[in-house]
Structure to design on (746 residues):
DNA sequence: TTTTCAAGAATTTTT
DNA sequence: TTCTTGAAAA
């Protein structure tokens, strides 16, 4: 493998050969970015750099795994296994575990996913008795996350009047207090959330100069992929680690920056030159992936963005077929169109299902596509949405494991202390929380001292709590000597989870039992996999870390399934035929991005990412009507469609006139109703609500609001009702004039 | 303490 | 429409 450089073109070879000093590679979509990274690492290894001195940060765990495999194959040795390669989160989680004492954490700290964090925040809001209308857990969590990603701790927060002011204006004056509580509770629980993995790394590197120097010396060569989607925290980590040798190579494409909602800061890439004046910039502009129509169509769109690095993406590939623009009547039709089109393409071009992807803006859009594919028996795989590890039963089982590993973990404790139900209810938990605060210990540890509070608990409760502790303690002892699978088996048996679901006996419960079985086989795969690795780690702690950092993008592809996913998830992937569906105003671009030009530009970049996933064929699609929350709403084609130069587009399915089908009439009426043009009372003449009102119905009156029907009298034409309104009291109303809505029949 | 039922909210994107 | 939450009943 001496001629490895011959596998690169001229512009790819330059950054590969440039090993010393800072460099930035601006790599257009499909220009061989991964290839450059792979060969650059190979080149470093060939030059004699030890794999232990290379840090390569990728966007997904799967990307890391694949790159390692590729390197191993090309170098024909085992060195790749020893490279520090992975996502920011997983690499630094690993480092934090081995250095945890330096920042006051035990090495077996738990990692909370967003769901756990939100739950904890919502508990804190409840405990603080705050108004739920102003303090929504999700919003608070997002703000906490963005502060952490900007490296603003609670202490910094309280030192910045403008931050406090902005929360005051948003009616969240207590935000700082929540933030502080949240951070304290996490610390007390020996927990880090996703953002902590980066923030604590920075704290570690800042507070301990020896540690900083140690890792600077280890990471002589640093490579960062998808640099356009790094946030400030990540920027700081890289900056301090690369400070000694300055051998930093960042690769990215500003036109594909799509994660600002997660704190990604496009300025990191736009300002790289400013931060590293010595840096060399290379550009990869030749696209090898897509046909000319696709490349140029995408170029014509992204031109509309103001903030970007100048580049000219070109290709030698054939023109290929034009980009197809489909218009469907509604989302179900769109699904049917996609499904039948896949069917045709498959037959005409001998493609397997894995060559196709359907991309959309929001996860909820997958359903109509799924229905249509299922109907004509095309296998598909949905990426995203609720992942396996987020299922209730899986979260429950892993909560037991988490509690075994780290019994200070409050969320896991709360989650399973009474699941399956064992008579330890909310009241008991409240008491335990009070004790835990008074004694400054974790909720689990309060169990050991409840006999100090005999007045608070009756005998039954006391016994049940102790039983629970004994269960966890015996699992803890096992976990010290036995492997993860053994402990998991005893969690399942000891907790009674399986029995609980078996007793329920519903289809859903059986499904849950199967999922738990699947988890068990997953844990065995994990053990086998780790045993193969040089630095393999088969501990439960490691297993729990892996699954909490697991993402849906890490799921493996199947060549005989069509892939369905959001565009965000499709970053870095390519498919022969790509359908982008739901390209409508307010959906894509998202309605939330409309009043901010930066956000709108990001949506445009997202659309650019979607288009450039396609190799041979790109099909864009939009509908006239779409289901939302049980209503049909009218949709306009997205502005982005007009922004793609018309010469690359071929319109399809454009029937200017609809034949009104029954379906269509219903949708018109619903649409009009929604706009308030059709009075609900008049639509269904035959079974008008007026006639249907009976005693004890709760009705809503335009002026008086809600009321209870107490009496009905009179003949059909002059029916009168006596209604007791919450506001306004008892009234007798002539039904033929009143516009009443039935809210509830009792 | 647990179960049941009805009302209300919810949809951007994710490590 | 589906999921979550809260109150009432068992």
């Amino acid at each position: 493998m001496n001629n490895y450089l011959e596998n690169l073109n001229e512009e790819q070879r330059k950054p590969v050969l440039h090993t010393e000093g800072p460099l930035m590679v601006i790599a257009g979509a499909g220009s061989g970015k991964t290839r450059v990274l792979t060969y650059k690492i190979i080149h470093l290894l060939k030059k004699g750099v030890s794999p232990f001195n290379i840090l390569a940060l990728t966007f997904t765990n799967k990307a890391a795994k694949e790159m390692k495999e590729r390197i191993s194959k090309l170098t024909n040795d085992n060195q790749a296994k020893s490279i520090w390669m992975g996502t920011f989160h997983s690499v630094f989680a690993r480092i934090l575990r081995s250095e945890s004492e330096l920042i006051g954490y035990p090495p077996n700290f738990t990692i909370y996913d967003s769901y756990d964090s939100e739950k904890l925040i919502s508990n804190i809001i409840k405990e603080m008795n705050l108004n739920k209308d102003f303090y929504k857990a999700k919003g608070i969590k997002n703000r906490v996350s963005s502060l952490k990603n900007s490296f603003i701790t609670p202490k910094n927060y309280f030192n910045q009047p403008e931050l406090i002011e902005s929360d005051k204006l948003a009616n969240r004056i207590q935000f700082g207090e929540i933030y502080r509580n949240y951070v304290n509770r996490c610390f007390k629980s020996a927990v880090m959330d996703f953002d902590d993995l980066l923030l604590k790394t920075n704290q570690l590197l800042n507070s301990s100069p020896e540690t900083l120097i140690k890792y600077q010396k280890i990471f002589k060569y640093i490579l960062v992929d998808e640099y356009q989607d790094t946030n400030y925290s990540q920027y700081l980590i890289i900056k301090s680690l690369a400070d000694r040798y300055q051998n930093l190579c960042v690769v990215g494409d500003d036109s594909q920056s799509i994660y600002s909602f997660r704190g990604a800061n496009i300025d990191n890439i736009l300002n790289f030159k400013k931060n590293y004046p010595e840096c060399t910039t290379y550009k990869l502009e030749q696209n090898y992936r897509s046909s000319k129509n696709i490349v140029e169509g995408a170029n014509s769109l992204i031109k509309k963005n103001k903030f970007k690095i100048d580049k000219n993406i070109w290709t030698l590939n054939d023109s290929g077929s034009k980009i197809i623009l489909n218009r469907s009547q509604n989302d179900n039709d769109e699904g049917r169109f996609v499904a039948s089109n896949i069917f045709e393409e498959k037959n005409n071009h001998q493609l397997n299902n894995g060559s196709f992807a359907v991309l959309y803006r929001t996860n909820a859009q997958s359903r109509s596509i799924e229905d249509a594919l299922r109907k004509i028996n095309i296998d598909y795989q949905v990426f995203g949405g609720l992942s396996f590890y987020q299922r209730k039963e899986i979260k429950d089982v892993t909560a037991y494991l988490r509690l075994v590993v780290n019994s200070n973990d409050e969320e896991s404790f709360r989650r399973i202390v009474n699941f399956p139900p064992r008579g330890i209810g909310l009241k008991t938990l409240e008491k335990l929380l009070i004790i835990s605060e008074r004694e400054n210990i974790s909720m689990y540890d309060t169990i050991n001292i409840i006999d100090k509070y005999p007045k608070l608990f009756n005998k039954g409760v006391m016994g049940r709590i102790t039983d629970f502790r004994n269960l966890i303690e015996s699992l803890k002892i096992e976990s010290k000597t036995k492997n993860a699978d053994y402990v998991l088996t005893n969690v399942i048996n000891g907790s009674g989870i399986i029995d609980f679901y078996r007793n329920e006996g519903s289809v859903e419960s059986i499904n849950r039992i199967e999922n738990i079985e699947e988890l068990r086989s997953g844990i065995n795969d994990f053990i086998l996999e780790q045993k193969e690795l040089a630095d393999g780690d088969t501990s439960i702690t490691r297993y729990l870390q892996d699954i909490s950092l697991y993402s849906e993008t890490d799921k493996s592809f199947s060549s005989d399934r069509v892939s369905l996913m959001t565009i965000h998830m499709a970053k870095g992937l390519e498919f022969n035929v790509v359908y982008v569906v739901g390209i409508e105003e307010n959906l894509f671009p998202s309605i939330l991005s409309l009043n901010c030009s930066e956000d709108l530009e990001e949506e445009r970049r997202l659309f650019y990412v979607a288009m450039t996933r396609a190799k041979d064929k790109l099909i864009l699609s939009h509908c006239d009507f779409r289901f939302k929350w049980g209503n049909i709403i009218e949709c306009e084609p997205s502005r982005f469609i007009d922004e793609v130069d018309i010469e690359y587009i071929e319109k399809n399915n454009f029937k200017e006139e609809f034949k009104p089908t029954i379906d269509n009439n219903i949708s018109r009426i619903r649409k009009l109703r929604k706009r308030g043009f059709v009075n609900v009372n008049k639509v269904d003449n035959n079974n008008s609500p007026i006639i249907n009102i009976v005693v004890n119905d709760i009705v809503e009156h335009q002026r008086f609001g809600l009321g209870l029907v107490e009496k009905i009298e009179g003949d059909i034409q002059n029916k009168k009702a006596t209604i007791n309104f919450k506001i306004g009291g008892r009234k007798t109303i002539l039904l033929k004039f009143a516009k009443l809505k039935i809210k509830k029949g009792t």
